[in-house]
Description:
mainly alpha; 13 helices; about 70% helix; about 0% strand; globular; disordered N terminus
Amino acid sequence: xxxxxxxxxxxxxxxxxxxxxxxxxxxxxxxxxxxxxxxxxxxxxxxxxxxxxxxxxxxxxxxxxxxxxxxxxxxxxxxxxxxxxxxxxxxxxxxxxxxxxxxxxxxxxxxxxxxxxxxxxxxxxxxxxxxxxxxxxxxxxxxxxxxxxxxxxxxxxxxxxxxxxxxxxxxxxxxxxxxxxxxxxxxxxxxxxxxxxxxxxxxxxxxxxxxxxxxxxxxxxxxxxxxxxxxxxxxxxxxxxxxxxxxxxxxxxxxxxxxxxxxxxxxxxxxxxxxxxxxxxxxxxxxxxxxxxxxxxxxxxxxxxxxxxxxxxxxxxxxxxxxxxxxxxxxxxxxxxxxxxxxxxxxxxxxxxxxxxxxxxxxxxxxxxxxxxxxxxxxxxxxxxx
Length: 386
């Protein structure tokens, strides 16, 4: 794939190119689910604001409900594309970049599951929420496991890649499993029966290991690519933030799993293992948080440089939101675990930064969606576009 084709993943289309609602379905691509991820993590962050902030929690709940409706609408559009334009939709498997965004589907679902546990439990009760949350989580696990292997397999067998064209987008199908692991850590303590909780907890640790080492290996390759071939083009600048995602999620996952492990392991006579898991979770979370600080500093420098050169808006800007949001959540969790005001204060600042970025990106996305110029499927050859 040539560099222009790679950049076309995030390109906008002129209004005249969108013939109508049917064409919007034809041009709908999985990168729209990144908007659900970014909105979902903001809703969760507002719901975890330190101290008493009932208005912010209520705002987070409303945002989560609206985000769920958007997710359902996006699923309907993408399903319709497969039904109405099957031959064109299946080209995604051969596309070297757009196929990576299939990983956004399980990650978007995970934010809704987490919101169901945070907002749904107190509003609708355990009997109504937990069976749904558990069923959706296992679906999310299946999707994440499939993406984590199937997309790399397509990279190895059907797609063509070059090191100079690599971006952090490669991480998307890999990170889905560790996002599901964090959700499992949140779900496990709510499940009735010690066995169910232990099963989810152990599965979550496996999911974390299924994802994080592979993601770290890709980050090493990404550093090599940046050193040899310099920064990505301006339309792909936001992808630099995606590298923060697996690091922040690794930290949050270890913190969440470690905080829930002692009670669940103790229920099975494994108190020592639970204590060890709690300590390792805190240390690992702190270490990954420090690595994330380095990547965030690098991403800020890249963004500032590209802003000076001109940074065109596209759906890739949602890459600014989810990684920053997960890093904010990990920071708040560290503040709670270590009882250090520094992390709590920094977490609040990061959530405020996330809210500002989300407002900009969401506003411009809504305007672009209304105009129709954000609907573009790079899997279609130029001659095939409406």
